Amino acid sequence: MTTIEAGDKVVVTGAGGFIGSAVARALHAKGALVRAVVQPGTEALASEALAGLDASLVTADIADAAGLDGVFDGARFCFHIAALYSFWPKDPDPYYRTNVEGSRNVVAGATIAGVERICYTSSVATIGLESTGSGGEATEGDYAHVEHLFGNYKRSKYVAEHEVLRLAAQGAPVVLTQPTFPVGPGDRRPTPTGKLVLDFLNGRIPGYVDTTLNVVHVDDLAAGHLLAMERGRQGTSYILGGENLTMRAFVELLASVTGLRAPTIRVPNSVSLLAARASDLVEAGLLRREPHVPLEGARMSATQMRYDDARARDELGYVSRPAVEALVDATRFFLDTGRVDEKHAAAITLRGG
Q: How far is CA 167 from CA 67, 173, 175, in A?
């Protein structure tokens, strides 16, 4: 078993992001020396996310292989977390450039530089959900039907995972993680998952749809990444998840910890898709701006995104806390950073945690 030791130099791509900064914090707690790779133009955000960690900041475009020269020198490990995770823009090129080309460059570059192990952050978006409609839980062994990979994010991550596994078959020392839906402190952008919490806090969720989410605290997800690096099998993927919650249970749980009212109207999936198509046509198509109701998000909400992370628990010793703790910590972060409007912030009485 490999062990991350104090003093080890560890490269973390996407270290200024939500998951990346959580992994950087977990590495710092072990005494590792973090070399944080961030995309050009995100330095200020990364410095805020990594404050107090004494990380070495490196600005590099991961889609430019030449720009990664020297990044892996002397590093023992590499966590490749950087990705474009968004439902916007509609143009597929940025997704494939970052998620596919960037991943090939990082994994190949780290391998050539002699990095001992690489942990690649994939996504449960690459897993098939055919079994979940009848109440089952998807695992790493469920393959996706290509026509069900809605949107550029899912498609590009599916291709990226294939390219990383191809490099692993050629000898790259890779283990893969597949996060579910992380929630917690530090979601500065926020991600689409964090935006769901923030929209609830700001009173922007009038109803709920018939879907299921697997909610995991971002710090548990970070700990799972370190476990995968240390204990994961070569070329093997591990779902890192938490608690499966229906959307109704999700908003009711948020209501219970904030004192805000939970929506009681169930919105039919057909209505949600219709609203998303209208938003996509007018806002994205005519106004060229991010739609308030992303079509990709609406399509995802029509599925049951229920996952089983038993492989990670059995093989890695992975554990996760109850989803309510993730929601409390996320709410506290959004309140402390002024992301909740004054009216709703004044109405929140945070309970638990």
A: 20, 9, 11
User: Using an 8 Å Cβ cutoff, are 142 and 180 in contact?
Assistant: no
How far is residue 1's CA from residue 317's CA, in Å, rounded to a whole number? 13
Q: pLDDT tens digits for 71-84?
A: 999 999 999 999 99
CA 109, distance to chain mean position in Å, is 23
CB-based contact 81:12 (threshold 8 Å) = yes
11: left (phi over 0), alpha (psi -120 to 50) or beta: beta
Integer Cα distance of 282 and 102 in angstroms = 32
Which fold does the domain 9-180+217-241+307-320 belong to in CATH?
A: Rossmann fold (3.40.50)
Q: Dump pLDDT digits (tens) for 28-37.
A: 999 999 999 9
Domain ranges of the chain: 9-180+217-241+307-320
What is the Cα–Cα distance from 186 to 79, expressed in whole angstroms?
18
What CA–CA distance (Å, rounded) separates 64 from 49? 24
Angstrom distance (rounded) from CA 191 to CA 318: 24
Task: Give the whole-angstrom CA distance, residue 250 versus residue 40.
Answer: 36
- pTM for the model: 0.91
Contact 227, 34 (CB under 8 A): no
Q: Nearest 10 degrees: CA dihedral of 183, 186, 188, 191? A: -20
The residue to which tokens 């945690």 are assigned: 353
